[in-house]
Amino acid sequence: YAMLLSLIFLIVLVAAVVGFVFRHEIKTNFESNLNLALENYNVTADRHSEAVDTIQRTLQCCGVQNYSDWERTEYFSQKGIPQSCCKNQDDCLEKDLKDPNKAKLKVFVDGCFFLVTLTMESKMSIVAGISFGIACFQLIGIILACCLSRYITNNQYEMV
């Protein structure tokens, strides 16, 4: 049991170190995937499009760097900026969303990449604290399992 807990502890430790070391690559990869999701937005109405809409509504942002990122997409030429960027859903008309100057007044202008990374970094201390707490319980479990094993081994020799 102690060996199993030790293995799990090492896997979690390695995952944390790799995540910390490669955090910049993770950000770059996220940004490129977000750009790709914008380019392919609503082409097949897939889960990537739904994820973009959810991020934009939840964080009140639009595009990757800002709302003008949508101007380079196929979706913009057909329908303009998506409804998920609108500050007020009732006030967003499709003709306004096709005109970048009018859309600037009706959509969120901040980009989602900065807000997503800011949100992740602000929650990182909570995740680190919870992970540290779990690691402490794992170490206590490893120590207690070793003590139990030693106790069982010592008692068997005394009984003979």
From TrEMBL:
The keyword Membrane applies. Residues 1-19 form the signal peptide. It is a multi-pass membrane protein. Keywords: Glycoprotein, Membrane, Signal, Transmembrane, Transmembrane helix. GO terms for cellular component: plasma membrane. The chain crosses the membrane at residues 126-152. It is found in: Membrane. Gene3D superfamilies: Tetraspanin (1.10.1450.10). May be involved in cell proliferation and cell motility. PANTHER family: TETRASPANIN, TETRASPANIN-6. This is Tetraspanin-7. It comes from Piprites chloris.
